[in-house]
Fold each of these.
Amino acid sequence: MSTTTAAPRVGELLRDWRHRRHLSQLDLSMEAEVSARHLSFVETGRAKPSRELLLHLAEHLEVPLRERNALLLAAGFAPVYRETPLDAAEMAPAREALDKILAGHEPYPALIVDNAWNLVSANASAFGLLADGVDPALLEPPANAMRATLHPDGLAPRILNLEEYSAHLLLRLHRQALLSQDPAIGELLDELRGYPGVVEHASAAVEPVELLFSPLRLAAPDGQELVFFSTLATFGTALDITLAELSIEQFFPADAATAAALQQRR
Protein backbone atom coordinates (compact mmCIF):
# COMPACT_ATOMS: atom_id res chain seq x y z
CA MET A 1 0.00 0.00 0.00
CA SER A 2 1.44 3.36 -1.00
CA THR A 3 1.26 6.47 1.10
CA THR A 4 1.34 10.08 0.06
CA THR A 5 2.65 13.05 2.00
CA ALA A 6 0.49 16.16 1.92
CA ALA A 7 2.20 19.21 0.50
CA PRO A 8 2.92 21.89 3.12
CA ARG A 9 0.26 24.55 3.40
CA VAL A 10 1.21 28.14 2.68
CA GLY A 11 0.77 29.09 6.34
CA GLU A 12 3.21 26.38 7.41
CA LEU A 13 5.74 27.56 4.84
CA LEU A 14 5.45 31.16 6.00
CA ARG A 15 5.88 30.14 9.63
CA ASP A 16 8.94 28.08 8.70
CA TRP A 17 10.56 31.05 6.95
CA ARG A 18 9.72 33.30 9.89
CA HIS A 19 11.40 30.86 12.28
CA ARG A 20 14.48 30.69 10.07
CA ARG A 21 14.78 34.47 10.33
CA HIS A 22 14.32 34.27 14.12
CA LEU A 23 11.29 36.56 14.04
CA SER A 24 8.18 36.39 16.20
CA GLN A 25 4.77 37.01 14.67
CA LEU A 26 4.80 40.42 16.34
CA ASP A 27 8.25 41.21 14.89
CA LEU A 28 7.15 40.34 11.38
CA SER A 29 3.79 42.10 11.68
CA MET A 30 5.53 45.31 12.77
CA GLU A 31 8.22 45.12 10.07
CA ALA A 32 5.72 44.34 7.32
CA GLU A 33 3.00 46.61 8.75
CA VAL A 34 0.50 43.74 8.77
CA SER A 35 -1.97 42.96 11.54
CA ALA A 36 -0.50 40.38 13.92
CA ARG A 37 -3.96 38.84 14.18
CA HIS A 38 -4.24 38.46 10.41
CA LEU A 39 -0.72 37.05 10.20
CA SER A 40 -1.63 34.49 12.85
CA PHE A 41 -4.77 33.53 10.91
CA VAL A 42 -2.71 33.10 7.72
CA GLU A 43 -0.15 30.87 9.43
CA THR A 44 -2.82 28.67 11.01
CA GLY A 45 -4.87 28.42 7.82
CA ARG A 46 -7.87 30.36 9.15
CA ALA A 47 -7.34 33.06 6.49
CA LYS A 48 -6.21 32.78 2.87
CA PRO A 49 -3.53 35.35 2.01
CA SER A 50 -3.75 37.40 -1.15
CA ARG A 51 -1.02 37.15 -3.77
CA GLU A 52 0.11 40.68 -2.86
CA LEU A 53 0.34 39.88 0.85
CA LEU A 54 2.38 36.74 0.20
CA LEU A 55 4.89 38.63 -1.92
CA HIS A 56 5.01 41.44 0.65
CA LEU A 57 5.77 39.02 3.50
CA ALA A 58 8.27 37.11 1.38
CA GLU A 59 10.15 40.35 0.71
CA HIS A 60 10.42 41.12 4.43
CA LEU A 61 11.46 37.52 5.16
CA GLU A 62 14.12 37.65 2.41
CA VAL A 63 12.72 34.48 0.86
CA PRO A 64 14.70 33.48 -2.27
CA LEU A 65 12.80 33.93 -5.54
CA ARG A 66 12.61 30.20 -6.18
CA GLU A 67 10.95 29.68 -2.81
CA ARG A 68 8.61 32.64 -3.37
CA ASN A 69 7.22 30.72 -6.32
CA ALA A 70 6.70 27.74 -4.00
CA LEU A 71 4.75 29.97 -1.58
CA LEU A 72 2.52 31.19 -4.38
CA LEU A 73 1.87 27.67 -5.62
CA ALA A 74 1.01 26.50 -2.11
CA ALA A 75 -1.58 29.29 -1.90
CA GLY A 76 -3.08 28.42 -5.28
CA PHE A 77 -1.47 31.22 -7.29
CA ALA A 78 0.66 30.98 -10.42
CA PRO A 79 4.43 31.57 -10.01
CA VAL A 80 5.59 35.05 -10.97
CA TYR A 81 9.38 34.61 -11.17
CA ARG A 82 10.91 33.14 -14.30
CA GLU A 83 14.04 31.03 -14.50
CA THR A 84 15.67 32.00 -17.77
CA PRO A 85 18.73 30.08 -19.03
CA LEU A 86 21.79 32.32 -18.95
CA ASP A 87 22.46 31.57 -22.63
CA ALA A 88 18.98 32.77 -23.70
CA ALA A 89 18.85 35.77 -26.05
CA GLU A 90 17.06 37.97 -23.50
CA MET A 91 19.90 37.41 -21.03
CA ALA A 92 22.48 38.99 -23.35
CA PRO A 93 22.70 42.26 -21.32
CA ALA A 94 23.32 40.28 -18.13
CA ARG A 95 25.98 38.12 -19.82
CA GLU A 96 27.71 41.23 -21.14
CA ALA A 97 27.69 42.78 -17.67
CA LEU A 98 29.16 39.61 -16.14
CA ASP A 99 31.85 39.40 -18.82
CA LYS A 100 32.81 43.03 -18.19
CA ILE A 101 33.08 42.42 -14.45
CA LEU A 102 35.31 39.39 -14.97
CA ALA A 103 37.51 41.10 -17.57
CA GLY A 104 37.68 44.34 -15.60
CA HIS A 105 38.99 42.51 -12.55
CA GLU A 106 42.09 41.23 -14.35
CA PRO A 107 44.85 40.54 -13.44
CA TYR A 108 43.13 39.44 -10.23
CA PRO A 109 41.05 36.24 -10.12
CA ALA A 110 37.25 36.43 -10.29
CA LEU A 111 34.61 33.78 -10.78
CA ILE A 112 30.84 33.45 -10.98
CA VAL A 113 28.96 30.64 -9.24
CA ASP A 114 25.33 29.64 -8.81
CA ASN A 115 23.54 29.10 -5.50
CA ALA A 116 25.08 25.61 -5.16
CA TRP A 117 28.62 26.95 -5.85
CA ASN A 118 28.73 25.41 -9.30
CA LEU A 119 31.08 27.35 -11.56
CA VAL A 120 29.31 29.45 -14.19
CA SER A 121 32.27 31.45 -15.51
CA ALA A 122 35.70 32.75 -14.52
CA ASN A 123 38.34 35.09 -15.86
CA ALA A 124 41.72 34.04 -17.22
CA SER A 125 43.50 34.85 -13.96
CA ALA A 126 41.20 32.55 -12.01
CA PHE A 127 41.80 29.68 -14.42
CA GLY A 128 45.54 30.36 -14.47
CA LEU A 129 46.05 30.69 -10.71
CA LEU A 130 43.24 28.78 -9.05
CA ALA A 131 42.93 25.87 -11.48
CA ASP A 132 46.66 25.15 -11.82
CA GLY A 133 47.39 21.60 -10.67
CA VAL A 134 43.71 20.81 -10.03
CA ASP A 135 42.60 17.36 -11.20
CA PRO A 136 40.79 17.95 -14.55
CA ALA A 137 37.97 15.71 -13.34
CA LEU A 138 37.14 18.33 -10.69
CA LEU A 139 36.82 20.96 -13.41
CA GLU A 140 34.41 18.98 -15.58
CA PRO A 141 31.00 20.68 -15.78
CA PRO A 142 29.26 21.21 -13.47
CA ALA A 143 32.49 22.04 -11.63
CA ASN A 144 31.86 22.96 -8.02
CA ALA A 145 34.07 25.77 -6.72
CA MET A 146 33.94 24.62 -3.09
CA ARG A 147 34.81 21.03 -4.04
CA ALA A 148 37.62 22.07 -6.38
CA THR A 149 39.07 24.31 -3.66
CA LEU A 150 39.10 21.88 -0.72
CA HIS A 151 39.43 18.48 -2.42
CA PRO A 152 42.83 16.82 -1.86
CA ASP A 153 43.19 16.59 -5.66
CA GLY A 154 42.10 20.19 -6.03
CA LEU A 155 43.54 23.48 -4.84
CA ALA A 156 43.96 22.32 -1.23
CA PRO A 157 47.62 21.18 -1.49
CA ARG A 158 48.58 24.72 -2.56
CA ILE A 159 46.62 26.48 0.21
CA LEU A 160 49.22 27.35 2.84
CA ASN A 161 46.62 28.14 5.53
CA LEU A 162 44.25 25.28 4.73
CA GLU A 163 42.99 24.97 8.31
CA GLU A 164 42.04 28.62 8.58
CA TYR A 165 40.68 28.97 5.05
CA SER A 166 38.67 25.75 5.08
CA ALA A 167 37.08 26.77 8.38
CA HIS A 168 36.12 30.08 6.79
CA LEU A 169 34.52 28.36 3.77
CA LEU A 170 32.65 25.85 5.92
CA LEU A 171 31.28 28.63 8.11
CA ARG A 172 30.07 30.42 5.00
CA LEU A 173 28.46 27.24 3.67
CA HIS A 174 26.96 26.37 7.07
CA ARG A 175 25.31 29.78 7.26
CA GLN A 176 23.92 29.34 3.74
CA ALA A 177 22.56 25.90 4.62
CA LEU A 178 20.80 27.27 7.70
CA LEU A 179 19.22 30.17 5.83
CA SER A 180 18.15 28.25 2.74
CA GLN A 181 17.49 24.76 4.11
CA ASP A 182 18.57 23.54 0.67
CA PRO A 183 19.42 19.82 1.01
CA ALA A 184 22.01 20.07 -1.77
CA ILE A 185 23.96 22.63 0.28
CA GLY A 186 23.79 20.37 3.33
CA GLU A 187 25.09 17.42 1.31
CA LEU A 188 27.97 19.50 -0.06
CA LEU A 189 28.83 20.67 3.46
CA ASP A 190 28.92 17.07 4.72
CA GLU A 191 31.17 16.07 1.81
CA LEU A 192 33.65 18.89 2.45
CA ARG A 193 33.83 18.04 6.15
CA GLY A 194 35.26 14.64 5.21
CA TYR A 195 38.21 15.97 3.21
CA PRO A 196 41.68 15.64 4.79
CA GLY A 197 43.01 18.83 6.33
CA VAL A 198 39.60 20.51 6.36
CA VAL A 199 38.68 22.01 9.73
CA GLU A 200 35.36 23.32 11.01
CA HIS A 201 35.01 25.91 13.77
CA ALA A 202 33.25 24.68 16.89
CA SER A 203 30.95 27.71 16.79
CA ALA A 204 28.53 28.24 13.91
CA ALA A 205 28.41 31.99 14.55
CA VAL A 206 29.44 34.03 11.54
CA GLU A 207 30.86 37.51 11.86
CA PRO A 208 30.45 39.68 8.74
CA VAL A 209 34.10 40.75 8.80
CA GLU A 210 35.09 37.08 8.87
CA LEU A 211 33.11 36.45 5.69
CA LEU A 212 34.91 39.29 3.93
CA PHE A 213 38.52 39.19 5.04
CA SER A 214 39.63 35.67 5.90
CA PRO A 215 42.80 35.46 3.78
CA LEU A 216 43.67 32.86 1.20
CA ARG A 217 47.41 32.14 1.31
CA LEU A 218 48.25 30.40 -1.92
CA ALA A 219 51.48 28.93 -3.26
CA ALA A 220 51.78 30.10 -6.87
CA PRO A 221 53.06 27.65 -9.50
CA ASP A 222 56.50 29.29 -9.20
CA GLY A 223 56.49 28.82 -5.41
CA GLN A 224 55.82 32.43 -4.44
CA GLU A 225 53.26 32.96 -1.66
CA LEU A 226 50.27 35.01 -2.79
CA VAL A 227 47.79 36.41 -0.27
CA PHE A 228 44.19 37.29 -1.18
CA PHE A 229 40.94 38.33 0.39
CA SER A 230 37.68 38.02 -1.47
CA THR A 231 34.27 39.68 -1.70
CA LEU A 232 30.92 38.32 -2.88
CA ALA A 233 28.48 40.35 -4.97
CA THR A 234 25.00 39.51 -6.23
CA PHE A 235 22.31 41.01 -8.46
CA GLY A 236 20.43 42.76 -5.68
CA THR A 237 17.39 43.72 -7.77
CA ALA A 238 17.13 40.60 -9.92
CA LEU A 239 13.60 39.38 -10.67
CA ASP A 240 14.76 36.27 -12.51
CA ILE A 241 15.71 33.17 -10.52
CA THR A 242 18.83 32.49 -12.58
CA LEU A 243 20.26 35.97 -11.98
CA ALA A 244 19.16 36.09 -8.34
CA GLU A 245 21.08 32.88 -7.61
CA LEU A 246 24.37 34.04 -9.14
CA SER A 247 27.26 35.28 -7.01
CA ILE A 248 30.43 36.99 -8.19
CA GLU A 249 33.50 36.26 -6.07
CA GLN A 250 36.39 38.65 -6.65
CA PHE A 251 39.84 38.06 -5.17
CA PHE A 252 42.00 41.06 -4.26
CA PRO A 253 45.68 41.15 -3.32
CA ALA A 254 46.11 41.48 0.43
CA ASP A 255 49.67 42.81 0.24
CA ALA A 256 51.91 44.74 -2.11
CA ALA A 257 53.98 41.70 -3.08
CA THR A 258 50.90 39.84 -4.32
CA ALA A 259 49.70 42.87 -6.28
CA ALA A 260 53.10 43.26 -7.93
CA ALA A 261 53.31 39.54 -8.78
CA LEU A 262 49.90 39.58 -10.44
CA GLN A 263 50.71 42.74 -12.40
CA GLN A 264 53.80 41.00 -13.76
CA ARG A 265 51.61 38.15 -15.03
CA ARG A 266 49.77 40.45 -17.45
Amino acid sequence: MTEKKRDYVVGHGKPPVGNRFKKGQSGNPGGRATKTAPPLLVRKFNEQVVVATNGRRQKTTRREVVIVQLVDQPTRAGLFATKFLTDVLKEIEKKASLSPRPTELV
Protein backbone atom coordinates (compact mmCIF):
# COMPACT_ATOMS: atom_id res chain seq x y z
CA MET A 1 0.00 0.00 0.00
CA THR A 2 1.35 3.34 -0.98
CA GLU A 3 0.21 6.55 0.60
CA LYS A 4 0.06 9.83 -1.27
CA LYS A 5 1.87 12.73 0.34
CA ARG A 6 -0.21 15.92 0.70
CA ASP A 7 0.94 19.44 1.52
CA TYR A 8 -1.04 19.19 4.76
CA VAL A 9 -3.47 16.93 6.58
CA VAL A 10 -7.12 17.48 5.67
CA GLY A 11 -9.24 17.98 8.77
CA HIS A 12 -10.98 20.53 10.95
CA GLY A 13 -10.26 24.01 9.58
CA LYS A 14 -8.21 22.56 6.70
CA PRO A 15 -10.51 21.81 3.74
CA PRO A 16 -9.38 19.92 0.67
CA VAL A 17 -7.79 22.11 -1.99
CA GLY A 18 -10.79 21.79 -4.34
CA ASN A 19 -13.28 22.95 -1.70
CA ARG A 20 -11.54 26.11 -0.55
CA PHE A 21 -12.87 29.57 -1.28
CA LYS A 22 -11.49 31.05 -4.45
CA LYS A 23 -9.31 34.13 -4.12
CA GLY A 24 -11.51 37.21 -3.74
CA GLN A 25 -14.65 35.17 -3.00
CA SER A 26 -16.46 35.96 0.24
CA GLY A 27 -17.46 33.20 2.61
CA ASN A 28 -20.74 35.02 3.22
CA PRO A 29 -21.77 36.80 0.01
CA GLY A 30 -25.22 37.71 1.36
CA GLY A 31 -23.74 39.53 4.32
CA ARG A 32 -24.97 39.59 7.88
CA ALA A 33 -28.71 39.60 8.46
CA THR A 34 -29.93 42.90 9.84
CA LYS A 35 -32.10 42.60 12.90
CA THR A 36 -31.93 46.14 14.23
CA ALA A 37 -34.86 48.54 14.21
CA PRO A 38 -33.64 51.25 11.78
CA PRO A 39 -33.22 49.00 8.71
CA LEU A 40 -36.52 47.31 9.49
CA LEU A 41 -38.26 50.68 9.76
CA VAL A 42 -36.75 51.88 6.50
CA ARG A 43 -37.82 48.69 4.73
CA LYS A 44 -41.37 48.87 6.13
CA PHE A 45 -41.76 52.60 5.46
CA ASN A 46 -40.70 52.13 1.83
CA GLU A 47 -43.24 49.37 1.14
CA GLN A 48 -45.99 50.18 -1.32
CA VAL A 49 -49.57 49.99 -0.04
CA VAL A 50 -52.96 50.67 -1.62
CA VAL A 51 -55.08 53.27 0.15
CA ALA A 52 -58.56 54.62 -0.55
CA THR A 53 -58.73 58.41 -0.64
CA ASN A 54 -62.00 60.12 -1.51
CA GLY A 55 -63.34 56.87 -2.92
CA ARG A 56 -60.31 56.33 -5.19
CA ARG A 57 -57.63 53.70 -4.73
CA GLN A 58 -54.02 54.70 -5.16
CA LYS A 59 -50.59 53.26 -4.43
CA THR A 60 -48.34 55.07 -1.99
CA THR A 61 -45.68 54.30 0.59
CA ARG A 62 -46.34 53.51 4.24
CA ARG A 63 -44.19 56.52 5.13
CA GLU A 64 -46.61 58.86 3.38
CA VAL A 65 -49.65 57.16 4.92
CA VAL A 66 -48.26 57.49 8.46
CA ILE A 67 -47.28 61.12 7.98
CA VAL A 68 -50.67 62.02 6.49
CA GLN A 69 -52.49 60.29 9.36
CA LEU A 70 -50.36 62.05 11.98
CA VAL A 71 -50.91 65.44 10.36
CA ASP A 72 -54.65 64.95 9.81
CA GLN A 73 -55.36 63.77 13.36
CA PRO A 74 -53.59 66.18 15.71
CA THR A 75 -54.16 64.78 19.18
CA ARG A 76 -51.97 64.80 22.25
CA ALA A 77 -50.88 61.19 21.55
CA GLY A 78 -50.39 62.12 17.91
CA LEU A 79 -47.99 64.91 18.84
CA PHE A 80 -45.84 62.52 20.87
CA ALA A 81 -45.93 60.00 18.03
CA THR A 82 -44.99 62.70 15.51
CA LYS A 83 -42.03 63.81 17.63
CA PHE A 84 -40.86 60.22 18.08
CA LEU A 85 -41.27 59.44 14.39
CA THR A 86 -39.41 62.54 13.21
CA ASP A 87 -36.56 61.84 15.66
CA VAL A 88 -36.25 58.26 14.43
CA LEU A 89 -36.36 59.32 10.77
CA LYS A 90 -33.70 62.00 11.35
CA GLU A 91 -31.42 59.45 13.00
CA ILE A 92 -31.92 56.95 10.18
CA GLU A 93 -31.27 59.56 7.50
CA LYS A 94 -28.16 60.78 9.35
CA LYS A 95 -26.79 57.23 9.51
CA ALA A 96 -27.64 56.67 5.85
CA SER A 97 -25.75 59.83 4.85
CA LEU A 98 -22.69 58.70 6.83
CA SER A 99 -22.57 55.29 5.15
CA PRO A 100 -20.23 55.03 2.15
CA ARG A 101 -21.94 55.41 -1.20
CA PRO A 102 -20.63 54.46 -4.61
CA THR A 103 -18.98 57.37 -6.35
CA GLU A 104 -21.20 59.16 -8.81
CA LEU A 105 -20.12 60.10 -12.28
CA VAL A 106 -20.10 63.83 -12.86
Amino acid sequence: MAVKPVLRMGDPRLLLVSAPVREFGTAQLRELITDMEDTMRAAGGAGLAAPQIGVLQRVVIFGGGRTERYPDADAVPYTVLINPKLKPLRGGKDEDWEGCLSVPGLRGIVPRYRRLRYRGATSRGSRSTERFRLPCPRRAA
Protein backbone atom coordinates (compact mmCIF):
# COMPACT_ATOMS: atom_id res chain seq x y z
CA MET A 1 0.00 0.00 0.00
CA ALA A 2 2.56 2.59 1.16
CA VAL A 3 6.10 3.03 2.33
CA LYS A 4 5.94 4.86 5.66
CA PRO A 5 8.68 6.96 7.26
CA VAL A 6 10.63 5.01 9.90
CA LEU A 7 10.85 6.79 13.24
CA ARG A 8 14.42 7.45 14.33
CA MET A 9 16.10 6.95 17.66
CA GLY A 10 15.22 9.90 19.88
CA ASP A 11 11.60 10.07 18.74
CA PRO A 12 9.59 9.93 22.01
CA ARG A 13 6.96 7.67 20.41
CA LEU A 14 9.51 4.85 20.38
CA LEU A 15 9.49 4.91 24.19
CA LEU A 16 5.72 4.45 24.55
CA VAL A 17 4.07 1.14 25.40
CA SER A 18 2.04 -0.24 22.50
CA ALA A 19 -1.51 -1.48 22.84
CA PRO A 20 -2.42 -5.09 22.13
CA VAL A 21 -4.39 -5.78 18.97
CA ARG A 22 -7.94 -6.72 19.94
CA GLU A 23 -9.63 -7.09 16.52
CA PHE A 24 -8.26 -9.48 13.91
CA GLY A 25 -8.96 -9.93 10.21
CA THR A 26 -9.89 -6.26 9.75
CA ALA A 27 -9.09 -4.11 6.74
CA GLN A 28 -7.18 -1.74 9.04
CA LEU A 29 -4.92 -4.54 10.33
CA ARG A 30 -4.32 -5.85 6.79
CA GLU A 31 -3.40 -2.33 5.65
CA LEU A 32 -0.99 -1.90 8.57
CA ILE A 33 0.76 -5.19 7.78
CA THR A 34 1.01 -4.30 4.09
CA ASP A 35 2.46 -0.87 4.94
CA MET A 36 4.97 -2.55 7.26
CA GLU A 37 5.95 -5.04 4.53
CA ASP A 38 6.39 -2.26 1.96
CA THR A 39 8.42 -0.16 4.41
CA MET A 40 10.65 -3.03 5.53
CA ARG A 41 11.40 -4.08 1.95
CA ALA A 42 12.06 -0.51 0.78
CA ALA A 43 14.52 -0.01 3.66
CA GLY A 44 16.20 -3.40 3.11
CA GLY A 45 15.30 -4.48 6.64
CA ALA A 46 15.06 -7.90 8.21
CA GLY A 47 12.21 -6.97 10.56
CA LEU A 48 9.98 -4.10 11.60
CA ALA A 49 7.65 -3.33 14.50
CA ALA A 50 4.54 -1.19 14.08
CA PRO A 51 5.81 1.50 16.53
CA GLN A 52 8.73 2.11 14.16
CA ILE A 53 6.22 3.59 11.70
CA GLY A 54 4.31 5.43 14.40
CA VAL A 55 1.54 2.89 15.01
CA LEU A 56 1.42 2.00 18.70
CA GLN A 57 0.14 -1.56 18.33
CA ARG A 58 1.86 -4.85 19.13
CA VAL A 59 2.56 -6.02 15.59
CA VAL A 60 5.92 -7.21 14.29
CA ILE A 61 7.04 -8.69 10.99
CA PHE A 62 10.36 -10.34 10.17
CA GLY A 63 12.10 -12.64 7.74
CA GLY A 64 11.22 -13.30 4.16
CA GLY A 65 14.56 -14.36 2.77
CA ARG A 66 17.98 -12.84 2.58
CA THR A 67 18.59 -9.11 2.83
CA GLU A 68 21.44 -6.88 1.74
CA ARG A 69 21.85 -5.79 5.36
CA TYR A 70 22.60 -9.39 6.47
CA PRO A 71 24.05 -11.17 3.44
CA ASP A 72 25.64 -13.99 5.49
CA ALA A 73 22.60 -14.74 7.65
CA ASP A 74 20.47 -17.79 7.03
CA ALA A 75 17.07 -17.07 5.51
CA VAL A 76 14.23 -16.78 8.02
CA PRO A 77 10.65 -17.53 6.95
CA TYR A 78 8.43 -14.48 6.63
CA THR A 79 6.45 -14.10 9.85
CA VAL A 80 3.69 -11.77 11.04
CA LEU A 81 3.35 -11.89 14.81
CA ILE A 82 0.66 -9.99 16.67
CA ASN A 83 0.72 -9.47 20.44
CA PRO A 84 4.06 -11.31 20.65
CA LYS A 85 5.42 -12.95 23.77
CA LEU A 86 8.98 -14.24 23.89
CA LYS A 87 10.30 -16.89 26.26
CA PRO A 88 14.03 -17.64 26.44
CA LEU A 89 14.87 -21.35 26.46
CA ARG A 90 18.01 -23.07 27.68
CA GLY A 91 21.22 -22.54 25.79
CA GLY A 92 22.53 -19.15 26.83
CA LYS A 93 23.24 -16.21 24.60
CA ASP A 94 25.50 -15.34 21.70
CA GLU A 95 26.51 -11.91 20.48
CA ASP A 96 26.65 -10.63 16.94
CA TRP A 97 26.53 -7.40 14.99
CA GLU A 98 23.05 -6.10 14.45
CA GLY A 99 21.38 -2.98 13.13
CA CYS A 100 17.98 -1.34 13.44
CA LEU A 101 16.04 0.67 10.88
CA SER A 102 15.36 3.26 13.61
CA VAL A 103 19.11 3.74 14.12
CA PRO A 104 20.29 4.13 10.50
CA GLY A 105 23.94 3.73 9.65
CA LEU A 106 24.91 2.24 13.01
CA ARG A 107 25.48 -1.33 14.13
CA GLY A 108 26.38 -2.76 17.48
CA ILE A 109 27.11 -6.03 19.21
CA VAL A 110 23.80 -7.31 20.56
CA PRO A 111 23.30 -10.33 22.85
CA ARG A 112 20.59 -12.71 21.66
CA TYR A 113 19.26 -15.91 23.18
CA ARG A 114 20.38 -18.97 21.23
CA ARG A 115 16.96 -20.56 21.66
CA LEU A 116 13.59 -19.00 22.34
CA ARG A 117 9.91 -19.62 21.91
CA TYR A 118 7.70 -16.91 20.52
CA ARG A 119 3.94 -16.85 20.74
CA GLY A 120 1.33 -14.55 19.36
CA ALA A 121 -1.42 -14.45 16.82
CA THR A 122 -1.64 -14.36 13.05
CA SER A 123 -3.41 -11.51 11.27
CA ARG A 124 -6.64 -13.54 11.43
CA GLY A 125 -6.29 -14.20 15.17
CA SER A 126 -5.11 -17.81 15.05
CA ARG A 127 -2.55 -18.73 17.68
CA SER A 128 1.04 -19.01 16.52
CA THR A 129 3.82 -20.66 18.51
CA GLU A 130 7.30 -21.31 17.17
CA ARG A 131 10.67 -22.25 18.55
CA PHE A 132 13.67 -20.47 17.15
CA ARG A 133 17.26 -21.57 17.36
CA LEU A 134 20.16 -19.54 16.05
CA PRO A 135 21.42 -21.58 13.10
CA CYS A 136 25.04 -21.55 14.23
CA PRO A 137 27.19 -20.04 16.93
CA ARG A 138 27.77 -16.38 16.14
CA ARG A 139 30.98 -14.65 17.06
CA ALA A 140 32.91 -15.67 20.14
CA ALA A 141 31.99 -13.60 23.17
